[in-house]
Amino acid sequence: MKQRLLDEIQSSSKNTMMKRGIISHLIYSENSTITDMSKELNLSIPTVTKLVDEMLAEGFVDECGKLETSGGRHPILYGLNADSGYFIGADLKQSGINLGLMNFKGDILKLQMGIPFKREDTLDSVKEFCNYIQTFIEQTSIDREKILNIGVALCGRVNPDLGYSPTFYNFGERPLADIMSDQLEINVSLDNDSRAMLYGEYMKTDMKGARNILFLNVSWGLGMGIMIDGKLYKGKSGFSGEIGHNYGYDNQIICHCGKKGCLETEISCSALYRKFVERLKAGEMSAILSQKEIEEITLDDIFYAIEKEDLLAIELVEEIGRKLGLHIGGFINLFNPDLVIIGGDMSRAGDFLLQPIITTVRKHTLSLMSRDSEIILSKLKTQASVIGACMLSRSKFFAID
């Protein structure tokens, strides 16, 4: 099955291209009639009927019942066969790994979150990362031959077309995707984690018809995923959305990129952690100090303090929200999006982050623009990137942009 599908996808024949178009349509619509596929793909009904019959015989498509209509014949609905292939998503964080398994239809079958892992820029670290993915695959009941692609989400700059990550695991001319493909003996594709988060939200939550979306990934750093007219925007080399390294503040703080005053030196979880610790060392109080020494405090402790309405932690999050809202206002004026999603670890602060963002956006954005754009928190939360990696793994396998 896997080799036949690989051969089929790699073929450039007109028949194959039309089948890929049908699969692409079914990915986004979940199920469809012959007539709707014909209109969407601009193909004749006899042609679509022939292709669907072939894909039924090959096991890639299933009948999914009949469309309820007010009268006349009820047309047959077709959808992807869930068991015809599987996809793995791997979300690599600074100090952990999230892994997911998805079937051909797009159902998430298994998630394993928060696997401890210290990322280092070495080949040994890549091999260890691959070993975790390998163990995850072995723990599923899926035939390895049915795993069609592994999608990896990484922070920083990622060229998804060439499989390179200039930010991490960059070992010269050989793409990271090729290194991992050889190690795992399954095709591997890469993408930026902010785009993965946006794609996961778009595919697995109710977007209410939104097709122009900005996703603000406020994690240890700051990134943005961009969707224009229902398509992810990558830029020339895949590096779009690196807003964290725009100059924003005359604070003389050196960012990990080596420059001073980047946005993420003031708007990120690393900024929250730095300021929280600095304020405690300056003599301010927090409930955390009754449980831990300053040197022992972690980012998770700060978010726990926010849940318990710790005044210092809330003050710092609201300050970050106001600063982020100022920049989101500029993005809204520039992009005029349907929707702005706030995600990443910082979204754990909930309304303490969201409300100052909305207030600041309304203050600094053209009124007509701000009314166009709804601002919400991520619905998938910490699972957004790994679910998005699963979904992108399938999309890239069929070369769906």
Give the arrangement of secondary structure elements.
Elements: H1 2-10, H2 14-29, E1 31-32, H3 34-41, H4 45-58, E2 61-66, E3 76-80, E4 86-92, E5 96-103, E6 108-116, H5 123-138, E7 147-154, H6 176-184, E8 188-192, H7 193-204, E9 213-218, E10 222-228, E11 231-232, H8 269-281, H9 299-307, H10 311-335, E12 339-343, H11 351-364, H12 367-372, E13 374-377, H13 384-397
Parallel strand pairs: 4-7, 7-8, 9-12, 12-13
Antiparallel strand pairs: 1-3, 2-3, 4-5, 5-6, 9-10, 10-11
Helix pairs in contact: 2-4, 3-4, 7-13, 8-10, 10-11
What does this protein structure show overall?
The structure is a single chain. The model has no long low-confidence stretch (mean pLDDT 93). Helix 2 packs across helix 4 (45-58), helix 3 packs across helix 4 (45-58) and helix 7 packs across helix 13. The chain is 41% helix and 18% strand. Helix 6 (176-184) links the parallel strand 7 (147-154) and strand 8 (188-192). It is globular and about 75 Å long. The strands form three sheets. It has a five-stranded mixed beta sheet, sandwiched between helices. Strands 11-10-9-12-13 form a five-stranded mixed beta sheet. A three-stranded antiparallel beta sheet has the order 1-3-2. With 401 residues, the protein is an alpha/beta fold. The protein is built from 13 helices and 13 strands. The protein folds into three domains: 2-82, Arc Repressor Mutant, subunit A (Orthogonal Bundle); 85-198 and 385-397, ATPase, nucleotide binding domain (Nucleotidyltransferase, domain 5), CATH 3.30.420.40; 209-378, Nucleotidyltransferase, domain 5 (2-Layer Sandwich). The longest helix is centred in the C-terminal third of the chain and has 25 residues, at 311-335. The two termini are 24 Å apart.
